[in-house]
């Protein structure tokens, strides 16, 4: 009598133990593809998993669910909805006052989070990475705001100077005027 009960318990045990493990291994809601993410992108995606939510009923970029951070929806600031080149769009859309110390760090961080999540999603499907120009520009703006507000940036990859190089490297075919304006902003702290 006890042997069938024991066998049933042993048969069900792996299932009951695996449920928590499965939930911990689930991908963030925005990582919808199967292409492996680069290490840094994977770390960012995992860090954003508890901050960024998804709305699968809206698919603004390459059939990826809309990402939302702090009430900011990627679909409301999607560079592809503009006729401008990605960096020109970012430069005109994600403006700060001069100096940028009075800009909302929370708003810019939430905007950046939605772009970081969308980039991870694009990479997971092996999609077009035109998103990099506005994403780096948003990271650049966050760095400018932090620097202007006196917030120490300890990650050398997140400094204004480093991100200026990333923005210019990923600028695409924008005009020299656009590049010069981004370079000017680097000094407006």
Description:
The protein has 189 residues and is mainly alpha-helical. The chain has 7 helices and 3 strands. The chain has a 3-stranded antiparallel beta sheet, covered by helices on one side. Strand 2 and strand 3 (72-73) form a beta hairpin. Keywords: Signal. Pfam families: DUF7143. Residues 1-18 form the signal peptide.
Give the integer mean of the pLDDT values.
89
Biggest sheet strand order reads: 1-2-3
Unreliable segments of 5+ consecutive residues: 1-25
Number of structural units classed as domains: 1
Order of helices and strands: HHEEEHHHHH
Helix vs. strand class: mainly alpha
H/I helix tally = 7
Classify the oligomer.
Answer: single chain
**Approximate helicity band:** 40-55%
Largest beta-sheet details: 3 strands, antiparallel
Strand coverage percent: under 5%
The rounded Rg comes to: 21 Å
Number of distinct beta strands = 3
**Bulk shape:** globular
Could you give the distance between the termini? 78 Å
Question: What is shown here, in short?
Answer:
Helices cover 53% and strands 5% of the residues. The protein is mostly helical and 189 residues long.
Topology:
Layout: H1 2-25, H2 39-48, E1 53-55, E2 66-69, E3 72-73, H3 86-93, H4 105-124, H5 132-148, H6 160-169, H7 176-186
Antiparallel strand pairs: 1-2, 2-3
Helix pairs in contact: 2-4, 3-5, 4-5, 5-6, 6-7
Tag the structure with descriptive keywords.
single chain; 189 residues; mainly alpha; 3-stranded antiparallel β-sheet; globular; disordered N terminus
């Amino acid at each position: 009598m006890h042997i069938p009960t024991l066998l049933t318990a042993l048969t069900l045990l792996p299932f009951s133990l695996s449920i928590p493990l499965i939930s911990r291994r689930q991908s963030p809601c925005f990582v919808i593809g199967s292409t492996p993410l680069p290490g840094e992108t994977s770390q960012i995606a995992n860090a954003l998993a508890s901050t960024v939510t998804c709305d699968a009923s809206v698919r603004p970029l390459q059939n990826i669910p809309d990402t939302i951070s702090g009430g900011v929806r990627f679909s409301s600031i999607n560079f592809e909805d503009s006729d401008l080149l990605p960096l020109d769009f970012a430069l005109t859309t994600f403006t700060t006052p001069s100096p940028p110390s009075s800009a909302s760090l929370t708003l810019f961080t939430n905007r950046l989070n939605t772009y970081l999540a969308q980039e991870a999603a694009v990479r997971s499907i092996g999609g077009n990475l035109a998103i990099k120009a506005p994403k780096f520009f948003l990271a650049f703006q966050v760095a400018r705001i932090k620097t202007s507000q006196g917030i120490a940036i300890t990650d050398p990859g997140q400094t204004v100077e480093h991100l200026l190089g990333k923005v210019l490297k990923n600028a695409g075919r924008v005009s020299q005027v656009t590049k010069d304006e981004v370079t000017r902003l680097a000094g407006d702290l």
